C-alpha cells in the first residue's frame, strides 16, 4: 500500500468506489419486504462480479433492523449475513469492498425501507461527521484524538459509537493497490486472502515506525495522520441495547497527504442527499 499516491492511482480507486456505490444504489432500489440479508449480499456479489470485480478486500455485508446498530455483537461471526428478513420501516446497511485489478474501494451505504422518523433523524445527523473528520485531519490532529472527538460528537448528539464494535475498534483503515500474488480466494467467508496477507505485512511494517494501518483510539494510533488512502467509516446508533435499535454509517475513501487531506470523491449518494437536504426513507 503506497503512501504517496499518483493521480492515476487515485482515478482508478475512484472508479472502483463509484462502481461499489452504483451496486449499493441499484441493489437497495430493488429491496422488498421479506428479502434476507443473505439474499441481499448475493445480489451485490453477482452485480459486482458481472461488472468487472475480480477480488474482494471483503465480501458484501448487509445488516437489517437492530443489526444496523450491531446490537449484541460480540463475536466476528455475528457480522456475517443472516436469514433476517427486511420489513417496512426497517433500516439497512450495505457494506462492500471490491477490488478491480488490485485497486480497492470500501463503502458503506445506509437506507430504510419505508418511513422511519428515528432513522431519518439519525441519518441527517450523520452528515456532520464528514466535514468534522476532514477538518480534524487537515489540522493534523492525532488519529487517536480524532477518534475520541468523533466519540464525543456522537455522545453530544445522543448516539452511541458503533464503529467501536468492529474488529480492532476501527473508524478507518489504510488501503491501496494490492500487489500480492496469492490466490484470489475468500477466507472465513469475509476477507480476501490477498487482503489479509497485505494487512499483515503492513501491520509489521507500520509497527516498526510506531504507527498502524488501523485507525482507532489505541496507542498505535496516537500519531498524526499517516499519508495515504484511508477508508473511513463513522457508524452511530440509537437505543443500541433495545430491539428497536437503529444504526447508520457511511464509508468512503479519504486521501491524506503530508500537509492536507480531501475526500477522494464528492459525487457520492450520501453527499448528494445531504447537499439537497433530502433524507428519503427509500434511500
From TrEMBL:
Protease found in the keyword field: yes
UniProt xrefs under Gene3D superfamilies: Creatinase/methionine aminopeptidase superfamily
Any GO MF annotation of the entry: aminopeptidase activity
Source superkingdom: Bacteria
CDD domains xref list: APP_MetAP
Keywords for this protein: Aminopeptidase, Hydrolase, Protease
Protein name: Aminopeptidase P family protein
Source organism (scientific name): Bailinhaonella thermotolerans
Source lineage: Bacteria, Bacillati, Actinomycetota, Actinomycetes, Streptosporangiales
Amino acid at each position: 500500500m503506497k503512501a504517496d499516491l499518483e493521480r492515476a492511482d487515485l482515478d482508478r480507486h475512484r472508479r472502483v468506489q463509484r462502481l461499489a456505490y452504483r451496486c449499493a444504489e441499484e441493489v437497495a432500489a430493488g429491496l422488498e419486504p421479506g428479502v434476507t440479508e443473505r439474499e441481499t449480499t448475493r445480489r451485490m456479489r453477482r452485480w459486482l462480479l458481472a461488472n468487472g470485480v475480480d477480488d474482494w478486500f471483503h465480501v458484501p455485508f448487509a445488516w437489517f433492523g437492530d443489526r444496523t446498530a450491531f446490537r449484541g455483537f460480540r463475536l466476528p461471526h455475528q457480522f456475517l449475513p443472516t436469514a433476517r428478513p427486511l420489513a417496512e420501516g426497517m433500516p439497512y446497511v450495505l457494506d462492500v469492498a471490491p477490488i478491480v485489478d488490485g485497486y480497492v474501494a470500501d463503502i458503506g451505504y445506509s437506507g430504510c425501507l419505508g418511513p422511519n422518523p428515528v432513522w431519518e433523524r439519525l441519518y441527517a445527523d450523520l452528515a456532520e461527521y464528514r466535514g468534522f473528520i476532514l477538518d480534524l485531519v487537515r489540522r493534523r490532529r492525532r488519529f487517536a484524538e480524532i477518534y475520541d472527538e468523533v466519540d464525543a460528537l456522537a455522545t453530544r448528539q445522543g448516539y452511541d459509537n458503533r464503529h467501536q464494535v468492529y474488529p480492532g475498534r476501527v473508524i478507518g483503515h489504510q488501503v491501496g493497490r494490492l500487489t500480492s500474488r496469492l490466490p484470489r480466494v475468500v477466507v472465513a467467508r469475509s476477507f480476501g486472502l490477498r487482503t489479509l496477507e497485505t494487512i499483515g505485512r503492513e501491520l509489521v511494517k507500520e509497527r516498526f515506525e510506531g504507527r498502524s494501518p488501523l485507525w482507532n483510539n489505541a496507542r498505535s494510533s496516537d500519531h498524526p495522520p499517516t499519508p495515504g488512502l484511508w477508508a473511513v467509516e463513522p457508524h452511530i446508533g440509537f437505543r443500541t441495547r433495545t430491539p428497536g435499535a437503529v444504526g447508520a454509517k457511511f464509508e468512503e475513501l479519504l486521501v491524506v497527504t503530508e500537509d492536507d487531506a480531501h475526500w477522494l470523491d464528492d459525487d457520492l449518494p450520501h453527499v448528494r442527499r445531504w447537499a439537497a437536504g433530502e433524507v428519503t426513507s427509500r434511500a
